[in-house]
Amino acid sequence: MEPYDIERYLNIRSAYGASFGPDGERLSFLMDTTGTSQVWTLEEPRGWPEQRTFYDERVTFASWSPERPELIFGMDEGGNERAQLFRLDAETGAIENLTAMPDAKHRWGGWSHDGDRFAFTSNRRDEAVFDVYVQGRDETGADATLVYEGDGWLSLAGWSPDDSRLLVSQAYSNFDQDLYVLDLEADEPELEHLTPHEGDVRYGSASWAPDGGGIYLVTDEGDADTLYLAYLDLASGELETVIDGDGWNVDGIALDDETGRFVCSRNVEGYTELTVGEFDADEPTAYKTFPEPDLPGGVAGGVSFDPDAERFALSTSGDTVNTNVFVVDIGTGAADRWTSAPTAGIPRETFDESDLVHVESFDELEVPGFLTLPDDHEDGQIPVIVDIHGGPESQRRPSFSSVKQYFLDRGYAYFEPNVRGSSGYGADYAALDDVEKRMDSVADIEACAEWLQDHPAIDPDRITAKGGSYGGFMVLAALTEYPDLWAAGIDIVGIANFVTFLENTGDWRRELREAEYGSLAEDREFLEEISPINNVERIEAPLFVLHGENDPRVPVGEAEQIVEEVRAHGVPVRKLIFDDEGHGFSKLANRIEAYSEIADFLDEHV
């Protein structure tokens, strides 16, 4: 049978981002049927969904009002990440731009429990910082009330049960945050600091307890290397462990603050394990558990409770399972698939499953990764794509990828490493690539490539490095540091020069990125030393560079400069820039063009 083309694979759909309506009878979700993610609604499992938004741009989230048949959704333009908030009337279909300030970012903070107001943070006043706003559901634009002026990266974790306070998070880096309470009824609202600490400590996934007297959160405070679920008593400031991750991260908690029912997820080697429970009203660290739901795939998240917390919706995915929304009965654990995101007519049984492997690096560190081999292959003949995630504080997990399945269908193996610096394996592992240790993570890629060369199924002369964002830097660094290992490189929205990247990235994120990579003021010489652009003469493998013109994170100048320098050294190089995309490619037509050209590039050079 002839392989399916890339357009067919990219038409495999995903349904996710579920939210229950106020009556509990209607579910909204995002699905990319039209080529970009839009809002859809359903009234019964596997029913005929109704499309609610009709834009060329992607919708990033949708959240129902707790009291009215309306929802708020977010959308940016051309990938510029300056999201605006819109209200959709579910009865009439009317849509109104609630923020209408296209030069500013707006970060959703949730509905008040009475549905009369919503909160968000925005950098309207100063592009480099985020302030806290509260806005009436009927207000628009400048009608929003600025309730607190921030001095950094602020986001919101929700309204207190009585709607008098907001829970505020401030991020200094991906591994250092603080939590605050903002009293909206004070004459001059100020932040009450809940988590004073020294060094880097994570405080995330914060949720109000039902009585408003405490906060549930995940943290690594103390001597913990991984995240655990804790309860923070607001009166005493005491932090108590609720669920220990037993060596793995407790990723987060979704909590219904009326009933105390919750869903907690643990990340074990990239696979999701769920705990469904209900907290004791009198003893906040005590809880009873409900049956664990039986869900397909290995990765699940995005929990939304129905109004009575008798059910919850979430999305689930796996190597061979495209993403769909399931609704789980809390009492029984029975899971019912509500959405029918199609596989474009490609039989599900043709999708290939990965194996979890571990590669020993130069210093005996075990680097985990997922290796997927095509069904039909001859030993020693398979080309392989090493696909490196971004972040760097991210993690490759065994979730569905239409691009991966496409290349497997074409006879490629696919290897997805989680090199040092990845999240999911503890704070110590994540810190092993910080600043001056940056190139140790690139050495992990060398170890992975050499391990693949020794694998009996792999052709050692046909190994490709592919990655996006920080993963794009890893591709370029691997090509400069270990040029003999690679048959080709594919750099998608990657960093070529840390100095120009930090100089030109969005003002709101520079400080966060300097915490990871090093600062322009103190580490410029080192940043120049490790930047691939300054070692470009070592690149021997053909290179394909793809980027979005509107990228606010890694500006398109990173692509332009590496292409120019590689071409000047006589190495085959191809460039593809999309003028209506940002940090990645969200539009179907652009994705089809990008991966069609990547396939042609690999056919030519690998």
From TrEMBL:
<dbReference type="InterPro" id="IPR002470">
    <property type="entry name" value="Peptidase_S9A"/>
</dbReference>
<keyword id="KW-0645">Protease</keyword>
<dbReference type="InterPro" id="IPR029058">
    <property type="entry name" value="AB_hydrolase_fold"/>
</dbReference>
<dbReference type="InterPro" id="IPR011659">
    <property type="entry name" value="WD40"/>
</dbReference>
<dbReference type="GO" id="GO:0008233">
    <property type="term" value="F:peptidase activity"/>
</dbReference>
<dbReference type="Pfam" id="PF07676">
    <property type="entry name" value="PD40"/>
</dbReference>
<keyword id="KW-0720">Serine protease</keyword>
<dbReference type="InterPro" id="IPR001375">
    <property type="entry name" value="Peptidase_S9_cat"/>
</dbReference>
<feature type="domain" description="Peptidase S9 prolyl oligopeptidase catalytic">
    <location>
        <begin position="398"/>
        <end position="605"/>
    </location>
</feature>
<protein>
    <submittedName>
        <fullName>Prolyl oligopeptidase family serine peptidase</fullName>
    </submittedName>
</protein>
<dbReference type="Pfam" id="PF00326">
    <property type="entry name" value="Peptidase_S9"/>
</dbReference>
<dbReference type="InterPro" id="IPR011042">
    <property type="entry name" value="6-blade_b-propeller_TolB-like"/>
</dbReference>
<keyword id="KW-0378">Hydrolase</keyword>
